[in-house]
Amino acid sequence: MKQASKIYVAGHRGMVGSAIVRRLQSAGYNNIVTRTSAELDLRNQQAVADFFAAELPEYVFLAAAKVGGILANNKYKAEFLYDNLMIQNNVIHQAYVNGVKKLMFLGSSCIYPKLAPQPLKEEYLLTGALEPTNEPYAIAKIAGIKMCDAYRFQYGCNFISVMPTNLYGPNDNYDLHTSHVLPALIRKFHEAKQTNAAEVTVWGSGKPLREFLHADDLADACFFLMQHYNEEGFVNIGVGEDISIENLALLIKKVVGYEGNIVWDNTKPDGTPRKLMDVSKLKGLGWQAKTSLEDGIKAVYHQKFIVEQIA
Ligand code: GDP
What we know:
By secondary structure, the protein is of the alpha/beta class. The protein has a domain at about 5-170 and about 210-240 and about 275-290: Rossmann fold, CATH 3.40.50. The protein has helices at about 15-25, 45-55, 70-75, 75-95, 135-155, 180-195, 215-230, 245-255, 280-285, 295-310, and strands at about 5-10, 30-35, 60, 100-105, 160-165, 165-170, 200-205, 210, 210-215, 235, 245, 260-265, 275. The strands form 4 sheets. Strands 2-1-3-4-5-10 form a 6-stranded parallel sheet, with helices on both faces. Helix 4 runs parallel beside helix 5 and helix 8 (about 245-255) packs across helix 10 (about 295-310). The two termini are about 35 Å apart. It binds guanosine-5'-diphosphate. Guanosine-5'-diphosphate (GDP) binds near residues 70 and 134.
């Protein structure tokens, strides 16, 4: 990938796509192609075919997806399956038809079986039943990995897949109904502090363990792997450490400076008990995350609720 190469970042307005664009720009890549979803509906086969034929990108980062937290995944099962399958089928197939030199498909740690041993090694894919609350999303992402591998096998395409752990960062979703836990808790504690609320409600038991990676670290790993990984299968991208939801809540409470109480809502699902990536393959290739969770939370909190609110 050269600085002048034409690179299509699908999903550039999302947290992941926007971080990849920032990373490319900071390295001097200036021929980046983007389309908003209003300009190009990636679920539309003909529209995607026309776009690729007109633009002929050389490299593709496929970071466009329908994403959401545990309740959204559970509620909009049909959309999570249909939208994601359509987006990735269209983009991957057109990348092949139009001779894209390399494509990176981004998945998620929820592709692993619910009760897989921890930490999650790449080879545990398809060794057991999935977590029901995000099965449609996971099925779509697994299909994407297999599609990249099949196009490599049958057509010789250099299409690779990466599986990020839970992410947070700029341009995250802070809607309390559809967001993931980390942005939801930042918002809940911030608003409770502002209104002097006596308590903040956190979902589930607090026992589940999750790993959190800053989107800028993820983008740096994607940039690295786009240059150094050319094989079938996929690479986990994570930090290699996890934290309980209870301790995450306490950490966010501290960063925000909220002094009230935490109440647990056990009517909400816990989801999978633990999701920790084994990152030895990624480390072996020469990459490691840099941002500590506390520093990352401070940075996104400051950006979202202090800087943006003043501006
Ligand atoms: P998951 O990693 O796919 O399970 O997705 P989430 O990030 O949505 O949820 C992770 C864990 O955090 C689950 O056990 C949730 O029940 C718990 N959680 C606690 N409070 C919240 C909240 O306000 N929003 C969300 N999305 N999850 C929460």
